[in-house]
Write a structure and sequence with these properties.
CATH class of the largest domain: Alpha Beta
Strand order of the largest sheet: 3-4-5-6-7-8-9
Number of helices: 7
Structural class: alpha+beta
Shape: globular
Largest sheet: 7 strands, mixed
Number of domains: 2
Low-confidence stretches: 336-341
Distance between the termini: 54 Å
Radius of gyration: 20 Å
Helix content: 25-40%
Strand content: 15-25%
Length: 341
């Protein structure tokens, strides 16, 4: 029989005891995110058996077709979190504006940012997808919260993480005291601690980028990728391309094996495509807590003060030495003075 089983809820409670500033409502919030993830995981795993594959017939603020599973995940997270009395509000990739807590429910001292189902383009072909979340403390003077509570720099996050729905369902999170991984045991219906004190290798074997956009790249991107895949005997790194197309899946692999994920600005979208609040900042917190780095090419992702809920950003994230290599190519191109996006 397996001994010392550590469930997600027990882990949060023990962390609360270790760090006296942690509060019970914060533990409850994280536990409820875990519950919502279980429900989403169940629906994702049975998607082919129900009428929840395909487009929902609507377009989100990003101009993207919304999938039926997107809407399910969004509804599940909001309905799980809005009545707890812990949140002052939420923001989501799938919603244009700040999500207020209904007047019939009490509010609390935290705000939640989320990408309910990252990797939507892969839903219908059974490729790994995920949920990304980020938690901030309430800072606004509005009694029931407003968008300012969600519009905070990544350095102000009190917790962040993601859930990967793949061959197994895993929840990875940090609250600023290391990175922990939990795997969902389908028999017990519980997330169990499976990876403690996760550290990303200083260098990795893989680079992740959409090479289909190579004709749009700025020179530094092209030069760095050529260097990354060139064999060591020719002065390169000898890295291999791995690109799933779901950010959480590509990041998850590199978190454990080492490597770099790049979604750069390019000639068509110099400000990048990924969402700062819902994708880049939460994963940057995880990366930094695991010993990695995350940058937009000029500054650390965690230091960017967002100006709007759906702000986009370039993203270079992963093993610290690999990210530093990419930044070297940026500096060489820009001579440390010009705009690099």
């Amino acid at each position: 029989m397996q001994k010392n089983i550590m469930t997600l809820e027990r882990h949060f409670l023990e962390q609360q005891r270790k760090f006296p500033l942690a509060r019970g409502e914060f533990t409850k919030l994280l536990t409820e995110i875990g519950f919502a993830a279980k429900v989403i995981s169940r629906e994702v795993n049975r998607a082919g058996l129900g009428n929840i594959l395909g487009d929902a017939g609507v377009v989100n603020i990003q101009g993207e077709e919304v999938k039926k599973l997107d809407l399910m995940a969004q509804k599940m997270l909001v309905s799980t979190m809005d009545h707890l009395g812990i949140l002052c509000g939420m923001a989501s990739e799938e919603e244009d504006t700040f999500i207020e807590i209904p007047d019939s429910f009490p509010t609390g001292s935290y705000a939640l940012n989320m990408d309910p189902l990252d990797g939507s383009s892969n839903i219908d072909v059974n490729v790994s997808i995920g949920t990304i979340f980020s938690i901030h403390r309430k800072i606004s003077d509005c009694p029931r919260g407003d968008a300012a509570d969600c519009l905070q720099a990544g350095s102000k996050q009190v917790a962040a993480g993601y859930v990967l729905y793949g061959s197994s369902t895993m929840l990875i999170y940090t609250s600023g005291h290391g990175v922990y991984g939990f795997t969902l045991d389908p028999c017990l219906g519980e997330f169990l601690l499976s990876h403690e004190a996760i550290r990303i290798p200083g260098r990795g074997r893989y680079y992740s980028i959409n090479e289909g956009y190579a004709d749009r790249w700025f020179p530094w991107t092209r030069n760095y990728i050529n260097h990354a895949k060139k064999p060591p005997e020719a002065g390169g790194r000898g890295m291999s391309l791995r690109y799933v197309g779901s950010l959480v899946a590509d990041f998850h692999r590199n978190l454990f094996t080492g490597g770099i994920f790049i979604y750069p600005g390019d000639t068509r979208a110099d400000k990048g495509k990924l969402r700062l609040l819902f994708e880049a900042a939460p994963l940057a917190f995880v990366a930094e807590q695991a010993g990695g780095r995350a940058t937009d090419g000029r500054v650390n992702i965690m230091d960017i003060q967002p100006e709007n809920l759906h702000q986009r950003t370039p993203l270079i994230i992963g093993s610290a030495d690999d990210v530093d290599d990419a930044l070297r190519f940026i500096r060489e191109e820009t001579n440390e003075t010009s705009h690099v996006r």
